[in-house]
């Protein structure tokens, strides 16, 4: 059961940070979530800020406001996130805003360093997931996740922690950026 919960929590983390791999390209993603989580704008995220940001994102998925996120609510939120990501990607590629991406526009974007999938990258997940997760479960799991991400154990998530995480997990790794903040 604990493993199942952790898988669902990881899925919620992935949803909450779906654009983490793009945060260095300035397309919203992790950098925006970092700023949102950093409630007092001091450039670092405390445990309380981290937990609150996670609860805020989960609450946004809880469309019927009953304190739990069902599989259906999560799937709807993930579909919305994918649609938003696709829209942003299309807008970046469509350099002349004509509503179409030409081969030249596509190649030009690649030539300017657009991200490519990492070798060996694969999605997490699979297996059985509970039908729902409660806000209390997310709150309980958030502390453990914060502890794993606080690489230097100073009680705050900082750019140094983000860099250390990226060095181990890569741009799109579990704890990349604030993805999971």
UniProtKB/TrEMBL annotation:
Bias kind Basic and acidic residues: ranges: 95-107
Position of the signal peptide: 1-21
Keyword Hydrolase: no
Superkingdom field: Bacteria
Entry keyword Ion transport: no
Keywords: Signal
Region (Disordered): 95-132
Composition bias type Basic residues, residue spans: 113-127
Span of domain EF-hand: 31-60, 81-116
Protein name per its UniProtKB record: EF-hand domain-containing protein
